[in-house]
């Protein structure tokens, strides 16, 4: 059984996902949230196995929420499920700690398969290519580039903070701003 939390701002999408997940053997929705803070509260309370996370949440930063969920419990899988789930976001999703990304236009069977694969530990993220890194480098301030490099290399937040000589809280703020810069343009303009 895979316990799933849904975080999506569209009521019809949330209701539809709850219904289809209930119909699929082994998949159990344990909550649904419309925005970042509600999603965070439910993640803390329900302790799901997997979070289906939309990239666009009004007034919030889904990528930062992904990082907080992974910090709360690294075994919780996060599958970004969004109309903006394109390969261009592979670096941002990796930095946020996401385990996978699926486009909402994929058939439901692909969603079910993706949930099971991510739950088993597979990564469903496009590889971080030099072209993607170049795009990110153009969108990130030069003083934050070392953060990107160290996080992509798997360096812990504590080690990044120590290397940069900053407090953990300052690093978290910088990472949240970095993730907001890397969010999809359409999602940023709607937020």
TrEMBL record:
<dbReference type="InterPro" id="IPR051015">
    <property type="entry name" value="EvgA-like"/>
</dbReference>
<dbReference type="Pfam" id="PF00072">
    <property type="entry name" value="Response_reg"/>
</dbReference>
<feature type="domain" description="Response regulatory">
    <location>
        <begin position="3"/>
        <end position="119"/>
    </location>
</feature>
<dbReference type="InterPro" id="IPR011006">
    <property type="entry name" value="CheY-like_superfamily"/>
</dbReference>
<dbReference type="InterPro" id="IPR058245">
    <property type="entry name" value="NreC/VraR/RcsB-like_REC"/>
</dbReference>
<protein>
    <submittedName>
        <fullName>Response regulator transcription factor</fullName>
    </submittedName>
</protein>
<feature type="modified residue" description="4-aspartylphosphate">
    <location>
        <position position="54"/>
    </location>
</feature>
<keyword id="KW-0597">Phosphoprotein</keyword>
<dbReference type="InterPro" id="IPR001789">
    <property type="entry name" value="Sig_transdc_resp-reg_receiver"/>
</dbReference>
